[in-house]
Amino acid sequence: TGATAPVTGTDNGGGEYLLKHQISTNNRAPEGLKTVRITAIDSASNQTTIDVMLALDNTAPRVVSVNSLDADTVYRNGETISFQVTADASDYVVSADFRAIDQNYQPKTEQVTNLTNNTYTIQYQIRSDNPRPDGKLLPIAVSASDGVHTTVDKTFTVELDNTAPLFTEAIAAKKTYSNGESVVLSVTLDAPG
Fold this sequence. Notes:
By secondary structure, this protein is mainly β.
C-alpha cells in the first residue's frame, strides 16, 4: 500500500545480490500480505521483474486459555499430562516447557495436535526416572509462535506428588467389637489432603 524509494542491491558476486530495506517504526501500512517488486537492469538496459510476497506482522499471538483435559492437575512420575490450548489463530507453532515438573524434560518431546479451530492439544508423559522433588503450582510455560513473534503463557500450573501419605497414628476407640457395633478408628497422616 504505497511506494518506497528504490533499494540498490549489494553485489555478493556470482550473480547474488543482497537487498535490504528497514521498515519504519512509524509505518502505518495495515498488516497482511505485501507485494515486493524486484527489478534487475543490466548494463545494456535489459530488465526483468519478479514479485515476492511478504507478510507484515506486528501482532504477537494471543493464548486465550489453557485448560486441563485430565480429572485433576496432580501428577506422579510416569503419568501423562494432557491439556488444551486455545489461541487467536490456528496457524501457530505451539509448544510447552515441562522443565518445572520433569527435570529430564527435553524440548519438543511433547505431542502437539493442531485441531485447526484455534485449538491445540498437548500431551507429555513425565519420565519415570524424574528426580524432581514434589511441588505445587509448577508452571507449564505454553508458547505460541507465528514465525515472527512468540507469546509465552505461564498461567497453567500443575502439582508433582510422588510421595505416599504416611500414617503417624491409628487408634481404635476400643479393642473388641461385636456384631452390630460401629468400629471407630482415629487415624492421623503426616500431611492433610
